[in-house]
Write a sequence for this structure.
């Protein structure tokens, strides 16, 4: 059963659409194909987890856009939130 | 599609038919409350401003007051001032008359001889106006007469996944009908302004979109503050929104995919039938909704992931959530559940159609959940401290 959502193919995070327990499977759709990984920690419903490894300093991508930078290395399956992402300072 | 509404002498069309008891300042606000309580069909609000404000601040207050009186949901207005405030009666009356020719009466408390005498005069004016208002027959109008305000508050990730895209679908449909939709909340364009700017209809609108974002950030920096302090809010973060950029990218979905035709300053009069427009408002919901109501929006659609109950004194506010848990917990406050979009149970077109029909019914008189609960909270944006 799909329990996560990939919004844009360029994204490196998916959104949990059900509560996901540590070590349980994460399934999401990518262009009609179901992709799977394992949650490395408990993920609260509607929170984000990495769907691939994100290196420290790399942009975190959701909606196909940068939403911030990783402040540490983040492994696929880890929770992605305020503890490991910081906002870009935009200077338009 | 059509709805049944109230035709006003200035040519605009209302979806409600209230008499507005308008406080010109904080010092008249308890008086307007007493007056409105005496008159069936009257509405008012607590105006915390109207005096001891710098010029740019006073302008925001004046625009909200004039815009409320001119909003087509209002049949006519009784303005009550104390007498000595900065927002002098003649200034308020002039600002209203620049926007509309609807019925207008004035009461100045210090000239009337105190609270009880002012209340007596104002209640008589308002009762007469309410009696006239009740005689008005509704007529059928095309949906293009609607100016829709769009808002999000207490956002969570489902706002960007479901509720805001559904509002965007509604917005695109209204624009296709020839109507007007307002995208608001400048602080929630930050990090997504480049996407909105690309959708500008002209180079001038493109530059204005970037300018209002820059101006907002600069205004906060002048007082040593950062827009990212307090935004995202603790509730946004608990829900799963990490950064302001992420919140903004979800927020702008409310504007659908239409080109941006114009950018309006806070509470300025919006031109009907002008497509998708932007208004420069704060992320603070009651002051953003108030600005769009002052701009002439007759209906507001408001998404909330966490579950916001807020209404408005003169405009029906329709609540929509994309969070199935929030809908289950707060159904008394929320009009439409958009979460089926996330789970593939309904399409964007289906939910957009449901929301469009709900807006049409609310325009015809159906009460929103916030109206049924009597919620009328509002705020007016501010530039700086009182003087």
């Amino acid at each position: 059963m799909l329990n996560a959502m990939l919004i844009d193919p360029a994204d490196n995070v998916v959104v949990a659409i059900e509560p996901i327990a540590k070590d349980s499977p994460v399934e999401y759709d990518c262009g009609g194909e179901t992709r799977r990984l394992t949650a490395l920690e408990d993920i609260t419903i509607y929170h984000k987890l990495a769907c691939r490894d994100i290196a420290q300093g790399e942009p975190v991508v959701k909606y196909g856009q940068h939403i911030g930078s990783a402040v540490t290395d983040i492994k696929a399956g880890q929770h992605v939130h305020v503890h490991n992402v910081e906002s870009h300072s935009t200077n338009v | 599609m059509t709805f049944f509404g109230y035709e006003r002498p200035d040519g605009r069309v209302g979806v409600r038919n209230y008499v507005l008891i308008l406080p010109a300042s904080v010092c008249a606000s308890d008086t307007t409350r007493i007056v409105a309580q005496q008159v069936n069909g009257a509405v008012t609000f607590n105006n915390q401003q109207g005096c001891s404000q710098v010029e740019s601040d006073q302008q925001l207050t004046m625009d909200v007051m004039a815009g409320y009186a001119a909003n087509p949901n209002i049949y006519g207005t009784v303005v009550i001032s104390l007498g000595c405030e900065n927002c002098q009666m003649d200034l308020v009356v002039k600002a209203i008359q620049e926007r509309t020719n609807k019925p207008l009466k004035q009461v100045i408390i210090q000239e009337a001889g105190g609270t009880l005498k002012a209340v007596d005069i104002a209640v008589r004016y308002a009762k007469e106006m309410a009696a006239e208002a009740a005689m008005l027959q509704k007529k059928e109008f095309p949906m293009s007469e609607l100016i829709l305000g769009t808002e999000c508050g207490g956002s969570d990730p489902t706002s960007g996944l479901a509720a805001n895209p559904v509002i965007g679908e509604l917005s695109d449909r209204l624009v296709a009908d020839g109507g007007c939709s307002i995208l608001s909340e400048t602080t929630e364009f930050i990090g997504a302004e480049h996407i909105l700017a690309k959708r500008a209809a002209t180079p001038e609108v493109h530059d204005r979109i970037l300018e209002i974002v820059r101006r907002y950030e600069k205004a906060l920096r002048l007082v040593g503050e950062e827009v990212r302090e307090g935004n995202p809010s603790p509730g946004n973060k608990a829900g799963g929104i990490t950064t302001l950029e992420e919140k903004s990218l979800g927020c702008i979905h409310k504007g659908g995919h239409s080109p941006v035709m114009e950018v309006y300053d806070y509470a300025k009069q919006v031109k009907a039938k002008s497509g998708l427009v932007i208004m420069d408002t704060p992320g603070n919901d009651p002051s953003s909704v108030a600005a769009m109501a002052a701009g002439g929006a007759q209906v507001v659609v408001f998404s909330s992931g966490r579950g916001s109950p807020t209404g408005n004194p003169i405009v029906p506010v329709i609540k929509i959530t994309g969070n199935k848990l929030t809908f289950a917990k707060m159904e008394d406050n929320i009009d439409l559940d958009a979460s089926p979009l996330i789970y593939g149970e309904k399409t964007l077109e289906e939910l957009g159609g449901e929301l469009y029909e709900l807006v049409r019914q609310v325009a015809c008189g159906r009460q929103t959940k916030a109206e049924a609960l009597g919620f009328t909270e509002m705020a007016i944006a501010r530039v700086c401290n009182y003087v």
